[in-house]
Amino acid sequence: MPEPTSAATCLFCRIVAGEIPATIVHDDDDILAFRDIAPRAPTHILVIPKRHVASAADLTEESAPLAGRLLLTAARIAVEEGIAADGYRLVSNVGRWGGQTVDHLHVHLMGGRTFTWPPG
Ligand code: 5GP
Ligand code: ZN
């Protein structure tokens, strides 16, 4: 049986802990944002809560302010990155069918090109 994802073994928790290097673009008490290692757009940033939450499906009433700050931070980074005027894509994959590969909640901030809808 594989170990359930936990803060001790989670890849993004390890980035938060500084155990795995990342190109960090935003760092505050609650939220970290860093460049995706395999960018799918000219700008591709992952915005994550520092606290381990597996996905949007694991958010609670108590974590609602954190979820709001996640989106707000993504929008602010879009301005700082110079992609806000043209528009950008925010997406959070949830679970296997949603295409989630890292089980720590993250919002993809992608910009610098046009995107199609619906995504594949
Ligand atoms: P998901 O597939 O879960 O929606 O997104 C996970 C994202 O994490 C992918 O876009 C993948 O490229 C990125 N990623 C995986 N491992 C690392 C890593 O070690 N460092 C960084 N910066 N990004 C990673
Ligand atoms: Zn984690």
What does this structure look like?
The chain is α+β, with helices and mostly antiparallel strands and 120 residues long. Helices cover 22% and strands 21% of the residues. The protein has three helices and five strands. The chain has a five-stranded antiparallel beta sheet with strand order 1-2-3-5-4, with helices on one face.
Strand/helix succession:
HEEEHEHE
The count of helical stretches stands at 3
Question: What is the structural class?
Answer: alpha+beta
Indicate the percent of residues in helices. 10-25%
Give the terminus-to-terminus CA distance: 31 Å
> What best-fitting shape do the alpha-carbon axes yield?
globular
Rg for CA atoms = 14 Å
Number of strands: 5
Strand content: 15-25%
Mean pLDDT: 95
Tell me the major beta sheet: 5 strands, antiparallel
Question: Which blocks of ≥5 consecutive residues have pLDDT under 50?
Answer: none
The molecules bound to the chains, other than polymers, are: guanosine-5'-monophosphate, zinc ion
Q: Please list the strands of the largest sheet in the order they lie side by side.
A: 1-2-3-5-4
